[in-house]
Specification:
about 25% helix; globular; 5 strands; alpha+beta; five-stranded antiparallel beta sheet
Length: about 110
């Protein structure tokens, strides 16, 4: 498309978003509350967080971290669930059991 930069049309891979989650788990990146409810305030719904300035939307279902709805990186690239079609491609599914547990602990502290 004329006038659009390459970064505006580029998407974010599941591996890149996984790395954001992994960095939180390893305490190498900071997790902050985004717009909307805190993790502990809802049982089912969307929770927005920021990881070192990158905006991420997570879906919580019946109190459990269910899937990643999408993200927007500081460089303008965006991704949503459609970017990660197929089994095993949600960025959260790439986390190890330990990494996921650490991410959940960080979410609970928000």
């Amino acid at each position: 498309m004329p006038g659009r930069s390459a970064t505006a049309t580029a998407t974010v891979s599941a591996r890149e978003v996984y790395q954001l989650f992994r960095d939180v788990a390893l305490q190498q990146s900071s997790l902050m509350r985004g717009d909307g409810p805190r993790w502990a305030e809802i049982d089912t719904g969307v929770v927005h967080v920021c990881i070192d300035g990158q905006r991420v939307a997570l879906f919580k279902d019946a109190g459990e971290l269910h899937h990643c709805l999408g993200c927007e990186l500081q460089d303008g690239r965006v991704a949503g669930q459609d970017s990660w079609r197929g089994a095993g491609t949600d960025p959260l599914e790439l986390l190890s059991v330990w990494e996921r547990a650490q991410l959940l602990k960080a979410l609970e502290r928000l």
